[in-house]
Design goal:
3 helices; 125 residues; mainly alpha; two-stranded antiparallel sheet
């Protein structure tokens, strides 16, 4: 396990290096821009945000409508560029309760399947 801790610490160091590099280049970009250019870019960014907010709101509403329609139809629909893929609802079981039941009824254990473990790397809180 100490090897994994060492690797995680090295990974955090590399991520920190990448952040420092990004900040350095942002500072270099900032240094070559005049106040007028900075203001013009800020104005462009503000207009972009406003314009995209409206479009993203429309995308969100239309996406919800498409999903609702496809769920009601119970079938996938393919457009020219996108498709809405209908999937049957997933079945879930109360694993804790079934494991308890299996203790008294071992014959159901043959139906239990367990997938491969996975790993996600997250920041320490």
């Amino acid at each position: 396990m100490n090897e994994v801790v060492t690797k995680l610490d090295r990974l955090a160091d590399l991520q920190a290096q990448a952040d420092v590099i990004r900040m350095r280049f942002n500072d270099l970009r900032d240094g070559v821009m005049t106040p007028e250019i900075k203001q013009a870019l800020a104005d462009i960014d503000a207009e972009e945000r406003t314009t995209l907010e409206a479009v993203n709101e429309g995308i969100g509403k239309l996406t919800a409508d498409v999903k609702d329609d496809v769920v009601k139809a119970g079938a996938s629909v393919k457009g020219k560029y996108l498709q809405a893929v209908w999937m049957k609802g997933r079945v879930s079981w109360d694993t804790k309760a079934l494991d308890g039941y299996a203790a008294g009824h071992p014959e159901i254990a043959q139906f239990r399947k367990e997938g491969e473990p996975s790993v996600s790397i997250r920041g320490v809180k």
